[in-house]
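Here is a protein:
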Amino acid sequence: MTIYQTTGLTGPAPTSIVSVKPLVLSAAPQRGEDLQVRITAPATGINLPIVLFAHGFGSNLDGYAPLVDHWAGHGFVVIQATHLDSKRLNLVADDPRKPHMWRYRVQDMKQILDELEILEAAVPGLTGRVDHSRIVAAGHSFGGQTAGILVGLRVKDPQTGIAEDLSDSRVMASIQLATAGKGGDELTPFAYENLPWLRDQDFSQITAPGLVVAGDKDDLPLSTRGPEWTSDPYTLSHGNTSLLTVYGGEHFLGGISGYQSAETTDENPDRVALVQQVTLAYLRHVTGIDEGDWVTAAGVLAESHPLGRLESK
């Protein structure tokens, strides 16, 4: 099955891309580790929008090539960081930074935005070609929470009990892929104990546009509600939000975390292609580049498509 034939999504022709890593930003207060960044960008073009991408728990700036390469090859500058929870950094079990990982992730993203010009200058030929007024935050799993916080998701700090507004006005929209839903008594004991930043999430303050991608077989051991839990960022937000439900999709949605990734339990190139193409259509729509493929996706995926369903509110 070929997604382009079944959905009618065409998109622009892909272009060559340039990827530079690691670009190193000095450690922010209390972080203790310099921030390593990767930028993947089209080799040509001007007024290029930005996708600020947050990896899932344990991953790093080298992950998610099926999405990163696709977005960059079709006109977006994709910026990734290695966050403190990465296995690459291997923090010890009693590291005092661990309870604050969720907050350091947001801090990482804001530092990248603060130092965009420095990062641009480090990529040959990129200076002057990036549109700083069009920035979309995206992320998978734990990274979906990071992206959500940047557009208004409130997370109650498990140590202070305070849910601060950590959103950033520079971010215009979000894409949250296979990410966590609300907390409370729906969390499993494991999640409540080991992932305290999931205990109390408030999606009602999200008013920015967003796309949520959820697999209908993504039965994580974090919630008692089953796969529908990962749709909460759509159902509980108040923004102009859309939901792509990937039929048969488990947590890695067919393999978005990497080419031939061993962690993918539901390897399926068609699912990956669906996610690639719908997210690209959304990015082009929300940044004002082109509406065509988004309108097509909304029509074709509204009812009985074999791979998924797209709905909006």
